[in-house]
Amino acid sequence: MRDNPLVLHVLGARPNFVKAAPVVRGLADLGVRQGIVHTGQHYDALMSDVFFADLGLPEPIANLGVGSGSHAKQTAALLVGLEEVVLKESPDLVVVYGDVNSTLAAILVCAKLGVPTAHVEAGLRSFDRGMPEEVNRVVTDALADVLFATSPDALSHLANEGVDPAKVHLVGNPMIDSLFSALPKLDPEPVRARLGLPEAYAVATLHRPANVDDPESARELVDAVLAVSRQIPVVVPLHPRGRTRLAEAGLVSGETMTIIDPLGYVDFLSLVRGAKLVVTDSGGVQEETTMLGVPCLTVRPNTERPITITHGTNRLVTPALLPAAAEKALADGAATPSGELPPLWDGAAGPRIARVIASWLKGDNLSPAAQGVPQQMG
Ligand code: UD1
Ligand code: UDP
Q1: Which residue in 1, 50, 162, 241 is deepest, having the highest Cβ count within 10 Å?
Q2: Residue 98 CA, closest ligand 1 atom number
Q3: pLDDT 10s digits, 74-126
């Protein structure tokens, strides 16, 4: 390894920024040289800039500006842009996050160039290859050199796919680190007042292609969310994907429905913290509601985050069952089944990941036991 090795973080979409912030901070604390490459997959100020500000992320050393497009066009632009920047910067390790197209492209480029990679949030599986994210997860984990798992179920998924356990480190969840850091700033009152919401309200986020791309699915979902809004006022910070389709299906502001632009990280989580109920199809929001103890109904047939059901407040629902599930969740309140957060969701995942990376850069033995990181939870 060179003196003063360089770590690059490839980030592109909203959830990447949230997961990377604690890792970047952890590496900075250890004095590791690093830089962020922003692919530009998300580019609206409310999908990107606001996260850099809220999470205290340093300015990217490059923004590839790839923007939107079909999977093929977007991934192709990502491959070309990332190859150039990796060749120019010659990093010693590239860290990728989650399951978005920027993650997939970065792992492919580095595998072809022979540049080592680490994947944060390895091993999550919905076992639904109809989700673009599931394809990205499987390919990314097959090619990564170091894999950081956020929950114990990930370890068996990776073992079943033939990933060498010596490459896998169970480190906890950096998205939860970000939430821990933000907690003192999370105040629902000013956001609620600004939006003119009553004290009891629900929050909904919707952006999965399976829910919002097809007009029929969008209509079914919107009807269900409207039915919830007749029980409790609903505010929807709406992701740009599907905005038009959902509006055509009837998701418009009204007496008990408030449709707004996406919110910044601190404002969004403030609103979630004060909510009686969250309805979502997001991955990250399932985890954040588990930590905040807010009931969460996930409108999907499956989840790659089952720990949010076994250890948290999350339930999977179909659109048809959403109104009744909302009624029950509102009556029951927020008790978590086990009363405990998932293992290692303690706000210290970023420093654990940073320690493993720093040792790896020094060429130390990579076995999880040697890093003081528990490999298998009981
Ligand atoms: C992507 C990820 C998804 C993740 C989500 C987080 C993939 C395949 N999907 O989905 O896993 O859950 O990010 O939010 O990588 N758009 C804007 N402004 C932006 C960004 C997007 O208007 O700043 C619109 C464009 O019309 C674009 C659409 O949103 O076509 C979809 O964006 P894209 O990044 O392709 O996928 P997401 O649905 O955001
Ligand atoms: N989020 C946000 N503002 C919003 C909606 C979500 O800051 O209006 C945050 C949320 O708290 C979480 C992340 O964005 O940290 C999740 O991103 P998203 O749901 O877009 O992606 P997914 O997790 O489904 O991949």
Answers
A1: 50
A2: 11
A3: 999 999 999 999 999 999 999 999 999 999 999 999 999 999 999 999 999 99
Contact 299, 280 (CB under 8 A): yes
207: annotated active-site residue: yes
Residue 180 has what pLDDT? 97
Find, among 51, 58, 49, the residue nearest to 24 by Cα: 58
Measured in whole angstroms, the distance separating CA 14 from the mean position of its chain's CA atoms is: 8
- Same domain, residue pair 313 and 368: no
Residues 88 and 110 in one domain: yes
Question: Do the strands 277-280 and 62-63 form a parallel or antiparallel pair, or are they unpaired?
Answer: unpaired
The residue assigned the tokens 């939430």 is 179
* Rg of the chain in Å (alpha carbons): 20
Closest CA to 228 of 294, 296, 285: 296
Ligand 1 geometric centre to CA of 165 (Å):
32
Query: What is the domain extent for residue 277?
Result: 187-332
181 part of a folded domain:
no
Question: What residue's CA is closest to ligand 1, atom 26?
Answer: 241
Please give the backbone phi and psi of residue 35, each rounded to the nearest 5 degrees, phi first.
-150, 155
H or E stretch including 296?
A: strand 296-298
Nearest CA to ligand 2 atom 9: 265
Closest CA to 162 of 129, 201, 123, 136: 123
Q: Convert the pLDDT of each residue in 228-243 to its tens digit.
A: 999 999 999 999 998 9
Query: In sequence order, which residues have a C-beta less than 8 Å from that of residue 34 and are 6 or more positions away?
Result: 6, 7, 8, 9, 24, 27, 28
Contact 78, 64 (CB under 8 A): yes
State if pTM tops 0.85. Answer: yes
Classify residue 93: in a domain, yes or no. yes
